[in-house]
Each structure stands twice: as structure tokens, then as C-alpha cells.
Predict the structure.
Amino acid sequence: MPGRPKSATRKRHEYRKDHDNLMSQAISAYCTELQKPAGVPRRSSRTICKDFEQIYLQATGKPIKLSHATLSRLAAGGRSLAEMNEAKSWLTPEETECVLAYAKETADRGFPFSHRRLHEHVNEILTARLRPKFPGVGKRW
């Protein structure tokens, strides 16, 4: 019996995870190419992306597209979109875990969990850390 089909969100999450893993492998290969002496022929970022796409396709049967411009930017020390968005977050990873634990505890006790309750809890956490300069997370948080 095959079970349930994967949701579109789960498929995107797995694709992004595989893409990021393949991109990190391509970055290390590209950095190795950049370390070669000046007279030795080097593979371009575009060639490395195509090679890794082919290797992944042969190994899994699923196509993944890698951008040579993104490869060059990340190899030069750039940050990924996920890293940029994580830096913009109000909550630290530890505080996020605390909020998730609170939501689970509330659900385990049988209390209805609402957006208002979540909003209040997050505001309490952030007010304790950022006291004078914290305006609140806002209405659309």
C-alpha cells in the first residue's frame, strides 16, 4: 500500500533541500577550480552547474536547475535567500523553539490556540529581550 501523496509544500521543501545540498557541492567544486594556478585551464561556473545537474539527474532521475550566477555569488561569499530572511527575523532560533514548545504545551492541555494568544506570547518574549526599542510585532505578523 503506497500511503498518502506528498503535499505541494512538502515537495517544494524537499526540492529546496536537495537544491541547496547540490549547490553547496557545486560551490566547493567551483572554489577548488578557482584555486588552480593561472596557467591551468579552469571549468567555468556554468560548466560546473551543468555537470552537477547531469550527475544529479543520473543519480535520482529528477532534474534540478542550478544558476551559474548564484553559484558565482555564493562562492564569492554571498548569502542565500534563506540566510538573509533568517537575519531579518525578530525571533532568534532559540526563541522560535520556545514559541513552538508553548504552542505544543497549550494544545496538549486542550486550550484552543489562537493567533491572538500566539501574538501575546511572542510580544512578551521580544519585550523582555528588546525592552525599550521594541514596538510590537504588529497586526499582520
In short: The chain is about 65% helix and 0% strand. The first helix runs from residue 8 to 34. The chain has a mean pLDDT of 91. The CA atoms of residues 3 and 58 lie 26 Å apart.
